[in-house]
Amino acid sequence: MSLSNVQDIPRFLSVKQLTKLYPAFSELSLRWVLFNRSNNGADSFVIKVGKRKIVIDVEKFEIWLQQQKKI
Fold first, then answer.
1. Measured in Å, how far apart are the chain's first and last C-alpha atoms?
2. DSSP class of residue 54?
3. What confidence tens digit (pLDDT) does each residue in 54-66 have?
């Protein structure tokens, strides 16, 4: 996946796909965010499909990420 053409980015991504799009997040750190999603607001961008599958709404993830600024 390349950030050069935003239109090519799917709206919903798996955890592994999102870490490729945002290399600042390791898979483990993103899974920690997802595990604690009820406490950190990350539930706003997570969609649980079935019992185990989790997909991430990229647009909502970016909004959540901007809201995390502490500066």
1. 30
2. E
3. 999 999 999 999 9
Domain ranges of the chain: 10-67
pLDDT at res. 71: 63
How many C-beta atoms lie closer than 10 Å to residue 62's C-beta?
12
Average per-residue pLDDT for the chain: 89
What values do phi and psi take at 7, rounded to 5?
A: -65, -20
Q: Give the 3-state secondary structure of residue 57.
A: strand
Output the six-digit token pair for 29.
Answer: 């750190």
Contact 21, 13 (CB under 8 A): yes
Amino acid residing at 70: K
